[in-house]
Amino acid sequence: MSIRVTVFAFLAVAAALIAGCGTGSNPSPAPGEMRLYSASGRSATPIQHVVLMIQENRSFNDFFATYPGTDGTTTGQAEPDPSCSPPIDGGSIALTEMPLDLSLDMNHTWRTGYSIAYDAGKMDGFDKIQFNGTAADECSVPYQYTNPAQIAPYWTLASEYALAEHLFTTQGSGSFIAHQDLIRGGTIVEPKEAMVDDPTCGDCWWGCNASPGTITHLITEANEFIPKGPFPCSNKFQDAYPTLRDLLDAKKVSWKYYVPPSSQIDGKLWSAFDLVYPVRYGPEWKANISSPETNILSDVQHGKLPAMSWVIPEGANSDHPDTMLDHKYVDNGPEWIATVVNAIGESSYWDSTAIIIVWDDWGGFYDNKGGKLGKYAGPGERVPAIIVSPFARAGYISTTTYQFGSILKYIEQNWDLGSLKTTDKTSASIIDCFNYKQSPIQFQPITSSLGKSYFMHEKHSYQPPDTDW
Predict the structure, then answer these.
(1) Cys-Cys link to 254, which of 60, 261, 306, 381 (CB 3.0-4.6 A)?
(2) Which residues on neighbouring strands pair with residue 76, listed in sequence order?
């Protein structure tokens, strides 16, 4: 039996297990809907639109441990830890199947998290990581994976399109760094020194409008941690800090960064471009930073989708653990992704679009694959990536080793933008997940328990997708 048939057989059962599951309500495209291309930024490939959807804090193994044909696992490796209850003897440890909507957020910094879990590439130190702000080891908590029935839309997308099983974060750090890497491919800000982990302030913006006295942390080329770095704004960095925005603008390729609305003290990760001075204090802050994030649904409906889109979810829709809505833990991430994919798939944009779904960091979850540690605390842990397009290789599981720079390289090559010369220069492109010569895949709506109407009318929390500090 083929992998794809096996996955569909599983999903048929999974769909029956999800209470209230039904087709999302996504209207047909409006009459006369048109595609919007940049005047001089049309690609030579069939892909005229790239939509990069950035979810939160999940390792590859957490979501795809039992996905057929991948190198996931339900058995991990741990170091001996007698302080745990019961004590952990070390060696093999069984992973526990857990629900999607978790009530606990784990430590996923570089300095006190991934550097310990990595353990010289043995990937057995997860039990020795201490919970944030405590002296208690996390013990067996990281050794878990998500019930596949609760992420059925992700498995459906992976089986119908392409799944990258060896995508590693650019750095073994948290969401602040990851969001920078997804617009730039690296965080070098001083000669041979890059930002790592989170800025020092708690309830404040993480960017050019951070509280006075806020500083970043640094990691050297040789992976030495430096506790004091510059203020988190690109005009305070010694090194130049170009992003994809610079390359897109130079070629007149249209772009938007879709983000939820935020309050002054809870801005944090709403926009990676908050750290980029010429965007934060220039006309693009209003023209290109689009809020709320559901504007992407409206733009698709009204023929205003830009060539390049980044999409940041509302916290309850981000897959981030320990997220509450109406006094209960919730994770509507799979439904949010399905809704945006359905909106594009049922519009005239479908035949010219690539949707890249990625999770920004490892979230503290166990994974059995570690990249060879290089410079600047990278690469980090594996995270999932699903490539959805009429030109994606259907049912393909890519074993190519990627970093976030691989996504950037694909975008750069698609519009002949040139290179940022960060990890985009050294990473393999995700191009092997596509086949531009194949007959385009006819879109089939993704089954979801929620649809466009729910997300368009959802009350915004004004909380960041990631509240790590």
Answers:
(1) 306
(2) 93
d(Cα 321, Cα 192) in Å, to the nearest integer? 34
Write down the mean pLDDT value for the chain: 89
Please count the CA atoms within 13 angstroms of the CA of 345 that sit on its side-chain side: 24
Q: Return the bridge partners of 77, or none.
A: 92
| Continuous H helices in 1-160 | 3-17, 60-64, 115-118, 152-160
- Average pLDDT of span 111-137: 94
Q: Rounded to whole angstroms, how far apart are CA atoms 63 and 180? A: 24
User: What is the third-level CATH fold of 3-457?
Assistant: Alkaline Phosphatase, subunit A (3.40.720)
153 C-beta neighbours (distance < 10 Å), count: 28
184: exposed, middle or buried (Cβ count in 10 Å: 0-12, 13-18, 19+): buried
> What's phi and psi for 275, nearest 5 deg?
-85, -15
- In this model, does residue 3 exceed pLDDT 50? no
> Which of 321, 336, 355, 358 minimizes the C-alpha distance to 260?
336
pLDDT at 1 over 70: no
Q: How much is the average pLDDT of 219-232?
A: 97
* Prediction pTM value: 0.90
Question: Contact, 329 vs 316, CB < 8 A?
Answer: no
pLDDT at 465 over 90: no
CA distances from 64 to 224, 293, 385 (A): 33, 27, 11
Q: Are strands 162-168 and 396-398 parallel, antiparallel or unpaired?
A: parallel
CB 276, CB 179: distance < 8 Å: no
Yes or no: say if 312 and 465 are a contact pair by the CB < 8 Å rule: yes
The residues near 144 (Cβ < 8 Å, ≥ 6 apart) are: 62, 95, 96, 97, 98, 365, 366
